[in-house]
């Protein structure tokens, strides 16, 4: 059969295809996913699982007009492939290429740029309300949400609202029994129960078996679907939880049976009021290894060899050790040493490399699910009870807990430790995942102490320090391989609000936050070769700042360059300027390097850092430029400014 996928310019083209051709398209989509993974790491198993669901939705609705939101958005690949992006698909997750998440700049079929889980039901509700207000009552609104994202508190806020408003909205629950790791909690049990009891009363038939007896088109289809609709509620006893809230629950249905899905969606399109369709899929469907091990295949390494029938013969081996590795090892060691220490993850056990902690200390390991705000309030409760909780979380996802950090933790001055992973540019995941705002949003709050390790040797002592500290405290580190600073002697011990001076230089000084220290050391070395002597300070603390050391540099040196892998707006450099101002210093010799006030695109982390001058070349160039400009100004006015 000729290749079909490449001929699909828009979802309208799907309507020209027979059932057999649509089945072939589904296979071609899976083949394309395997091809992309043979070039670079990307989200995989979730995409394999939604192929038929994606086709069925686009065959039932017209999303050029109707509204569709894929919750989180990591399962958007099949949707991209059939909405005019097949030709550019292999550029996905590269700089300048397609984004690995929905992106309205790429296509009108992507309504919101997302990557954080849980908001889809709220946004379709808002879209529906806005459309109704503006007289666009002809538009259907559909959210597709996974069972991992489903227990997020915001989903229930949206359900409550939609049911109250009696909105015509369809929520498709894609239940594949997995988050990134196996899903946890009471909702998981409830969905398992629905799965187990999804049989037509009095017989052993599933909803799909009934649907499959109904033709897809024609008068017979219409009358059968109508009678089925009337009968369904009486015969399926599932989903009472949602029914009692005001949603009509349908399912569970087989999410890989394209014909069955099309029939039920056709039926649901005629429903009024809020509807929940419970769809069962297999994460990794179509690649047996991915279906067997969806954790590894959520976002696997590059496939080096693929055999017949999409059998993955070899994958790229793991690379160098990363900060996440030493942090998780330090957490493990702290838990071994002190039975009061506990760790919390919001569904990121794998990303945070906490599997060994989970296995060895199951009673002190808490996976709250994708519920970051709950996790922080939960940690506050644990701390109040006398335990020592570590909230191990990605910087970007902690944004969801802003108010709990304020009220439950900082305001109570409770000893909660935050280990902020992926604090910096996250690379190919892009703007939704870059962890570049935590410095400003954490430093706002009184009582908060904030640290960042200058290299791998700082990590374990910092965690020990944090666990002994009597108040909220955070440690931020990026998604990066480990650095080891070239010190003369051992690292200085961690002391509250004390920076570590790596080197002094009479021409100026880099004051580096976290892993930017190694980049600054390399830049200083390069400048030294040109006779420019720049020192390097490993700041270690954002709050409290080492005023004594840093302000001495501001006072005495011709140039101080603050360097951080975080936004410049209210960031570490701003903290230095504020401190200098409070001390009455003229801080025009302070140059701030960090993330500019714009959203940074997706791409390779090193490439993105270089683009904004946060690499060795960029820092060297910044120092040279500053010195040249000062020299020019000196000759004009005799006055050097920053
Ligand atoms: C707020 C937030 N927290 C955590 C994540 C990380 N994350 C991305 S996908 C995912 C699992 C989602 O599970 P599910 O919704 O069931 O989708 P599936 O991968 O099973 O298709 C998690 C935890 C995120 N994207 N957003
Ligand atoms: C979709 C999502 O949010 C996660 O899958 C995320 O992409 C994981 O990032 P890491 O690969 O850095 O763990
Ligand atoms: Mg899932």
Automatic annotation (TrEMBL):
Pathway: Metabolic intermediate biosynthesis; 1-deoxy-D-xylulose 5-phosphate biosynthesis; 1-deoxy-D-xylulose 5-phosphate from D-glyceraldehyde 3-phosphate and pyruvate: step 1/1
Pfam hit, one: Transket_pyr
Cofactor(s), names only, from the UniProt record: Mg(2+); thiamine diphosphate
CDD domains: TPP_DXS, TPP_PYR_DXS_TK_like
Protein's UniProt keywords contain Magnesium: yes
E.C. numbers: 2.2.1.7
GO CC annotations on file: cytosol
Binding site for Mg(2+): 147, 176
Similarity comment: family membership: Belongs to the transketolase family. DXPS subfamily.
UniProt protein name: 1-deoxy-D-xylulose-5-phosphate synthase
UniProt source species: Fimbriiglobus ruber
């Amino acid at each position: 059969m000729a290749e079909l996928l490449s001929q699909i310019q828009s979802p309208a083209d799907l309507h020209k295809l027979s059932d057999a051709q649509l089945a072939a398209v589904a296979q071609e989509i899976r083949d394309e996913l395997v091809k992309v993974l043979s070039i670079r790491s990307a989200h995989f198993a979730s995409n394999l699982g939604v192929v038929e669901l994606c086709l069925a939705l686009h065959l039932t609705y017209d999303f050029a007009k109707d509204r569709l939101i894929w919750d989180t958005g990591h399962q958007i690949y099949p949707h991209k492939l059939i909405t005019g992006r097949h030709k550019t698909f292999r550029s996905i997750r590269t700089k300048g290429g397609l984004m690995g998440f929905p992106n309205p700049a790429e296509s009108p079929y992507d309504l919101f740029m997302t990557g954080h889980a849980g908001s889809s039901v709220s946004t379709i509700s808002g879209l529906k309300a806005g459309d109704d207000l503006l007289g666009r009552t002809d538009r259907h609104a559909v959210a597709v949400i996974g069972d991992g994202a489903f227990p997020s508190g915001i989903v229930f806020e949206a359900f409550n609202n939609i049911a109250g408003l009696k909105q015509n909205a369809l929520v498709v629950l894609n239940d594949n029994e997995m988050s990134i790791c196996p899903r946890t909690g009471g909702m998981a049990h409830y969905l398992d129960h629905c799965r187990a009891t999804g049989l037509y009363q009095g017989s052993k038939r599933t909803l799909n078996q009934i649907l499959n007896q109904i033709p897809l088109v024609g008068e017979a289809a219409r009358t059968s679907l109508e009678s089925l609709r009337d009968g369904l509620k009486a015969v399926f006893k599932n989903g009472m939880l949602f029914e009692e809230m005001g949603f009509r629950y349908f399912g569970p249905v087989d999410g890989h049976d394209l014909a069955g899905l099309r029939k039920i969606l056709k039926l649901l399109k005629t429903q009024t009021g809020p509807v929940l369709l419970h769809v069962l899929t297999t994460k990794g469907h179509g690649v047996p290894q991915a279906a067997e091990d969806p954790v590894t295949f959520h976002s696997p390494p590059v496939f080096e060899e693929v055999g017949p029938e999409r059998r993955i013969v070899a994958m790229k081996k793991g690379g160098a050790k990363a900060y996440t590795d030493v942090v998780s090892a330090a957490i493990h060691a702290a838990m071994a040493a002190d039975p009061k220490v506990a760790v919390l993850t919001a569904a990121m056990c794998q990303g945070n490399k906490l599997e060994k902690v989970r296995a060895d200390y199951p009673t002190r390991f808490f996976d709250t699910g994708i519920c970051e705000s709950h996790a922080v309030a939960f940690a506050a409760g644990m701390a109040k009870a006398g335990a020592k909780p570590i909230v191990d979380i990605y910087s970007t996802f902690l944004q969801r807990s802003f108010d709990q950090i304020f009220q439950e933790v900082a305001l109570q001055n409770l000893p909660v430790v935050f280990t902020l992973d992926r604090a910096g540019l996250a690379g190919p995941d892009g703007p939704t995942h870059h962890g570049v705002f935590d410095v400003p949003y954490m430093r706002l709050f009184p009582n908060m102490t904030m640290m960042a390790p200058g290299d791998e040797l700082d990590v374990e002592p910092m965690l020990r320090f944090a666990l002994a500290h009597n108040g909220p405290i955070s440690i931020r580190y990026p998604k990066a391989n480990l650095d080891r600073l070239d010190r003369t002697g051992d690292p200085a011990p961690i002391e509250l609000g004390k920076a570590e001076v790596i080197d002094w230089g009479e021409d100026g000084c880099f004051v580096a936050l976290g892993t930017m220290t190694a980049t600054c050391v390399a830049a200083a070395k390069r400048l030294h070769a040109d006779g420019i002597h720049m020192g390097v300070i490993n700041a270690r603390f954002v709050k409290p700042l080492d005023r004594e050391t840093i302000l001495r540099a501001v006072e005495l040196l011709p140039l101080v360059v603050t360097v951080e892998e975080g936004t410049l707006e209210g960031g570490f450099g701003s903290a230095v300027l504020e401190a200098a101002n409070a001390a009455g210093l003229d801080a025009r010799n302070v140059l701030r390097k960090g993330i500019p006030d714009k959203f940074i695109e997706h791409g390779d982390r090193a490439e993105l850092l270089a683009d904004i001058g946060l690499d060795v070349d960029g820092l060297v160039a910044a120092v040279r430029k500053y010195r040249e400009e000062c020299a020019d100004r000196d000759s004009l006015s005799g006055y050097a400014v920053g």
